[in-house]
Fold each of these.
Amino acid sequence: MYRWTEKFNTVEENSHLRHLNTFGENPAACAVALKNIEIMERENLFNRSTELDDRLQKELLMVFKQHHCPL
């Protein structure tokens, strides 16, 4: 069985920097991504996005009008 830790057990030049890669099987990045998905599902953000979008637009328009910002 291949383990991600085997990637770090190397003598290649600059191998000590591998953990800085946010794209390539970084365990910290994967943990953060999974937690992010968990929060999005728990707070029902996928289904609420339309409602939140409408609310944000209305509130921004009010602020723009109060401060005489061009639209």
Amino acid sequence: MEVSDEAGESMLNMKVPTALRDELKKQAAEQGVTLRVIVLRALKAAGFTVNDNELADRRPERSGRKKSA
């Protein structure tokens, strides 16, 4: 089921191999960002249109977390 919000975003739910998810989670943790940021960066690198402002970690600031860009 796809759910859109007022910001023009939609929920995307999908199954991936467990090893890939573990790899994505590890990279996200190392970079101090969310899985969303990792996936959007990969999609942008693959040639999909992703605005730079979408690549920011939108979680509230916490000490010890790296800034994304």
Amino acid sequence: MIKVRLRSIRKARGLSQEELARRVNTTKGTISNYENGYSTPSNEMLLKLADELHTTTDYLLGRIDDPNVKINENTSETEYADLKEVLNKKRAHWGGRELTEEERKLIQRIIQAAIEREESATHTE
């Protein structure tokens, strides 16, 4: 299951084997071996892969089907992030690609305009 899920989410996040390997401090060959079922990642590597791919170890292991679910370790409840906080951070990603500061600010303006438009429409009804 890991080999299928790892390849699928890596591609969905727009990462090459080489780029993923660099991010988790291993080699392209190691990632290839995982994806072809020749070897399996250690528990430590599985955690690194899940973190870097913005998913959970449960998804990679086939225990859940939604790769986008993040679980709060403290409460076992689905965690929701404040998008404004995320976009204000120095690093935010979209599909595995890091957004520039300019892109993050543009997204904030678009969201703010949509909220203001909705609030305005709600108040005029």
